[in-house]
Inverse folding.
């Protein structure tokens, strides 16, 4: 409310004293009227009321009109509210209007923190663009006033501010992935034994850093962008699936992958194709499953809008047909076909055919 100019002034109902009070405690009505006459903040709007117990109309306060946020704060009469409002005013004056709604409605994001850093985070959120980190860690981004620990201190705030610009996409994929930054923490991948006898467990979690150093058993390796697709995978001899890599594809530089028959399956959208290009650059020979214009066209009715695209030009590493698909998706109003929406029968048939022909 404090940030919405069109709601001011506001009128707060005071409440008309009940008629019975005039006959039981007329002095209370007098005190009520006198108390409101002493109010110096805003405007107390009076109205004439006729009570049966009196022969004349009585002027009583009906509404308290506050014309500005400053008057509202003064009306609260609380020093802590006044201080917080002063800080918020400074932040609002020095940040882009896109940020205002979040900063006003989610004051816990900045309350008690350095005002200078909050303003700096808002400025940073107006500069950052999808993929701008280009594989560098977040701490390596160079912007005026940003130290190596800045993202560590304000990752949540920067993420939510970017959500205001990019319609929630940053929270959906994660700040590190959205900016194409190098993950600095431990990322756990889901490793699924499609054979059923290659690993001690049918499914297990493995750190991506360990996966880079440790060869997985089996003849074939299936890399799946999203972990939620595990239920669509068939039982398949001599095959391990690694799910949920997303942007964390550094582990695919492992030397042991050269001895495997590798397939990749991701979303059909510009981000999915960008990840495919990255995987191909690291692995080299790679079978791509269900990421074609034919599959997209067949199931386009299941696609949704891609609110934030992964650039306006196809990334290096895509084949000519994949480059055409990338450009096609840019022209589509609904250019994002998620893996989970493809029929399970198609998924299983395609993966089994890859195994037979690889």
């Amino acid at each position: 409310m404090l940030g919405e100019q069109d709601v001011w002034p506001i009128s707060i109902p005071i409440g008309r004293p009940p008629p019975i009070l005039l006959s039981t405690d007329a002095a209370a009505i007098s005190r009520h009227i006198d108390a409101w006459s002493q109010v110096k903040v805003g405007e107390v709007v009076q109205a004439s009321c006729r009570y049966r117990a009196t022969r004349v109309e009585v002027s009583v306060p009906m509404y308290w009109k506050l014309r500005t946020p400053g008057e509202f704060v003064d009306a609260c009469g609380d020093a802590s509210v006044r201080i917080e409002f002063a800080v918020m005013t400074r932040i609002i004056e020095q940040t882009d209007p896109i940020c205002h709604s979040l900063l006003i409605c989610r004051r816990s994001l900045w309350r008690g923190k350095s005002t200078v850093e909050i303003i700096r985070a808002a400025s940073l959120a107006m500069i950052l663009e999808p993929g701008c980190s280009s594989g560098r860690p977040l701490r390596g981004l160079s912007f005026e006033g940003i130290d190596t620990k800045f993202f560590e201190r304000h990752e949540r705030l920067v993420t939510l501010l970017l959500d205001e610009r990019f319609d929630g996409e940053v929270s959906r994929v994660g700040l590190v992935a959205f900016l194409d930054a190098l993950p600095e923490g431990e990322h756990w991948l889901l490793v699924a034994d499609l054979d059923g006898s290659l690993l001690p467990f049918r499914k297990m979690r493995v750190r991506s850093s360990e996966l880079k150093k440790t060869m997985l058993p089996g003849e074939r390796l299936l890399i799946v962008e999203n972990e939620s697709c595990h239920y669509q995978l068939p039982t398949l001899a001599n095959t391990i699936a690694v799910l949920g890599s997303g942007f964390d594809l550094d582990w695919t530089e492992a030397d042991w992958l050269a001895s495997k028959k590798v397939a990749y399956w991701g979303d059909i959208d510009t981000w999915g194709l960008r990840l495919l290009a990255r995987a191909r650059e690291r692995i080299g020979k790679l079978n791509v499953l269900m990421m074609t214009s034919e599959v997209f066209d067949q199931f386009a009715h299941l696609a949704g809008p891609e609110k934030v695209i992964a650039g306006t030009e196809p990334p290096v590493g895509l084949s000519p047909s994949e480059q055409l698909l990338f450009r096609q998706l840019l022209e589509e109003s609904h250019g994002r076909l998620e893996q989970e929406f493809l029929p399970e029968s198609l998924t299983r048939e395609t993966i089994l055919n890859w195994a037979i022909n690889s």
About this structure: The beta strands are 10-13, 43-50, 57-66, 188-193, 203-207, 220-224, 239-243, 261-265, 287-288. The chain has a mean pLDDT of 86. The chain has three domains: 5-72, 78-178, 188-357. The first helix runs from residue 19 to 24.
